[in-house]
Amino acid sequence: MLTDRFGRAIEYLRLSVTDRCDLRCAYCIPEGFKGFEEPAHWLSFDEIERLLGLFANLGMRRVRLTGGEPLLRRNVTDLARRIAVLPGVDEVSLSTNATQLSRMAVGLKTAGVTRLNVSLDSLRAETIEKINGRPVLDEVLAGLEGASAAGFAPIKINIVVMRDNADEVDAMVDFCLQRGHVLRLIELTPMGNTARKMGYVDLQPIKRQLQQRFGLIDKVMPGGGPARYLGTADGRFTVGFITPLSQHFCATCNRVRLTVDGQLHLCLGQEDRVDFRALLRNGATDDDLIAAFHQAMNLKPERHEFREQPEKLIRFMSMTGG
Ligand code: SAM
């Protein structure tokens, strides 16, 4: 088991399989952004499989495929299949904007992806276009239906709550209640200039309102992520809150992130990282790579500083892998 300087066991990897995306969410990739990673720098599936196999030997149990938009990486289902059978890996999950999901859901399920998170910032077509930069509401809803039909349940719906959609929380609750989805409300993280302009909304008052409206009680959900869950006693509705700013969860952080170009980031909000691409492409032995994982643990910072230093981070979420 890999443990960092603060006694946290690291067993969860968020793997970015591409930094490209078909959307231009205003809080994530700014319109006109050109700084995508060179394809020659992308880790190949063989490189990913080798690294993750070693990492799994060191105690990594869960992998989430993310990006950018992971469904845009060619043959991503093959990659999911290769990761799912690695000894030690208990779970492969995936975060998606769902624009490609209706045609890919069955393949992902067959490949061994166990859980899906779908980003859906609004149920209003015009708000989706404004926030996400493309008119994709119909595709996303079709993707969700395809995923349910393929047997993914429960699907977690992620909404980043900000000025333009804060009035939609109740509508999202109803939408998720009717379809059996778990709703997750996410606070806007100040990553890059664009995100900082979107209008941060503190989720604590919204949490109190929902608690009162539904009589919600604390709930534990599988996944081991940072969300704090509440649910109705009859189990019909569950809502999670991801509050990196108003109530951060760094003390229980169990994760690291590997970017498409092989940088292992130790914290979403800090710059500490290890360049695994350089190691892989300069002939590192398995022992060298294992040593690098151990060294990386010594670099993991205690916490992010999104609140104290919101201007500090110029990386967008799509670059690190959300
Ligand atoms: N494309 C996939 C998706 O849409 O879920 C995976 C990558 S996306 C970067 C992962 C998650 O990060 C999405 O739910 C997205 O809304 C969220 N995200 C991106 N930038 C963010 C920010 N500045 N603050 C909070 N969440 C953000």
Protein model, in words:
The chain is an alpha/beta fold and 322 residues long. The protein has a single domain, classed as TIM Barrel. 33% of the residues lie in helices and 20% in strands. The chain contains 11 helices and 14 strands. It has helices at residues 45-57, 76-84, 101-111, 125-132, 137-149, 169-179, 192-196, 203-214, 276-281, 286-299, 317-320, and strands spanning 2-3, 9-10, 12-18, 62-67, 91-96, 113-119, 156-161, 182-187, 217-219, 228-231, 238-242, 255-258, 263-265, 273-275. A 12-stranded mixed beta sheet has the order 9-10-11-8-7-6-5-4-3-12-13-14. It has a two-stranded antiparallel sheet with strand order 1-2. Strand 10 and strand 11 (238-242) form a beta hairpin. Helix 3 runs parallel beside helix 5. The protein is globular, with a radius of gyration of 19 Å. The model has no long low-confidence stretch (mean pLDDT 93). S-adenosylmethionine is lined by residues 21, 27-28, 66-67, 69, 95-97, 119, 158, 160, 186, 188-189, 191, 195, 317-318, 322.
